[in-house]
Specification:
Elements: H1 3-8, H2 11-22, H3 27-41, H4 51-74, H5 80-85, H6 99-110, H7 128-144, H8 147-186, H9 196-201, H10 211-223, H11 226-233, H12 252-265, H13 270-309, H14 313-319, H15 321-342, H16 346-407
């Protein structure tokens, strides 16, 4: 594609043409439908000359999107590299390409005739989140010329994600198990996950919180103005709408439903009652709990979309057993955690305990090889870096010597 054609072409038009080929309900879907109907009628063999068209539509649409991505890269579009990799615009929701990797990836796309761009392309079964994790490491490998260094960066990203998610899953499993034991042995009421700080500030800390921390938290809570504490930790007086004393014990669905019913009883319309119920539930939850629920809902949605991008579950499981189980259990964990935060009870807490334990174990198994090999890779990368520094110092000393010789009239 020459410079003149690049200036004249419109990437949106090219992407629209690609969508006509493989978009929902377009040419490829119609071909599939035609083959399905032909099979039902027993005349599938009559359509055999059309079989190559299915592959053609897929390959041509992908090629068109890559051409459009090159144009976008020329214009500085940050998503150009992801589009070039083979993702569709709708696949790019919920993830943002890291700026450092974006510069290298987009530069490679814009100069595809000069640089190898195979490393950017989406691998079979690779989701957008997987691609985002892989690209920084591959970019480092390309820049440094050292594949091991790129693997160290990629492994570090994976292990950082592991350290940020697995402990939380196991913590939920442990705390939830303790809560279930107390519920069935002593009849204690269930508490919503993510409300520990609220309990500490109001002088009702969980038993596993150290006494010194509990006293300090209660002291801070006592000095905090009640309206501010209610906004952050939830308003306890509203918990009575679900038959509970404390906000962290309240079932927000029941609170909202009962508040809406009371509003209707006083003459409010359906919309007014709905708004009243939702507002009351939010005030009962408090900002911290509501934010936790919102974050968990987003995590569930992103994870579910990631699993959907894997394609056929059977094939996805065959490709990467531990990885697929980790992703699916991650979605289940976030979904059950959301339910537990909204309506804490033995069922929702129990589901969060089970899915949290499965998610934690599956994620560790999926990353176990990385954990074992990481120290050795770091040592190798360190040796390589030391060698490069030594080479640079040697060249610097040699240059200084040559400069001194040139400046010395007696040499």
């Amino acid at each position: 594609m020459g410079d003149d054609s690049k200036r004249m072409a419109n990437p949106e038009d090219i992407e629209h043409l690609a969508k006509l080929l493989d978009g929902r309900g377009k040419l490829r879907d119609r071909l599939d439908e035609a083959f399905t109907r032909a099979s039902h009628l027993g005349v599938r063999d009559k359509l055999s000359p059309l079989k190559p068209m299915h592959t053609w539509t897929t390959e041509t649409a992908t090629d068109l999107r890559r051409r459009a991505a090159i144009l976008r890269a020329d214009n500085g579009d940050p998503m150009a590299a992801a589009l070039y990799a083979g993702f569709k615009p709708e696949d790019l929701k919920g993830g943002q390409l890291p700026p450092d990797a974006m510069l290298i990836a987009n530069a490679s796309v814009a100069n595809g005739d000069k640089f190898d761009t195979a490393w950017l392309k989406r691998k079979p079964g690779e989701t957008y989140q997987d691609w985002l994790q892989r690209i920084p490491g591959d970019a480092v490998a390309k820049v440094s010329g050292n594949e091991n260094l790129g693997e160290v960066v990629a492994d570090y990203i994976d292990l950082t994600a592991l350290a940020s998610t697995v402990p939380g899953a196991f913590k939920m499993a442990a705390a939830g198990t303790l809560s279930l034991i107390k519920r069935f042995k002593k009849g204690d009421l269930m508490k919503a996950p993510g409300t520990t700080l609220a309990q500490i500030l109001k002088g009702k800390p969980p038993s596993y919180i150290p006494a010194r921390v509990a006293r300090l938290g209660a002291s801070i809570g006592a000095r905090t103005p009640a309206p501010i504490l209610d906004v952050l930790a939830g308003k306890d007086s509203l918990a009575g709408l679900s038959g509970r004393q404390w906000a962290w014990e309240a079932n927000l669905l029941k609170v909202g439903k009962n508040a809406g019913a009371l509003s209707r009883a006083t003459g409010a319309g359906r919309l007014g009652a709905l708004a009243s119920g939702a507002g009351t539930a939010l005030r009962t939850a408090g900002w911290w709990r509501a934010a936790g629920i919102g974050g968990s809902i987003v995590a569930t949605g992103v994870g579910a979309f990631d699993v959907w991008q894997e394609g056929n579950p059977v094939e996805a499981f065959k490709r990467d057993k531990a990885g697929y189980v980790s992703k699916v259990s991650g979605v289940a964990f976030n979904a059950s955690l959301t339910a537990a935060m909204v309506a804490p009870n033995p069922v929702t807490i129990g589901a969060a305990v089970v899915t949290g334990a499965v998610y934690g174990v599956a994620t560790i198994v999926d990353n176990w090889d990385t954990v074992k090999k990481f120290p050795g890779k770091v040592a190798e990368a360190g040796a390589w870096a030391g060698k490069k520094v030594a080479e640079g110092a040697g060249k610097l000393a040699e240059g200084a010597k040559k400069l001194g010789s040139a400046l010395n009239p007696f040499d």
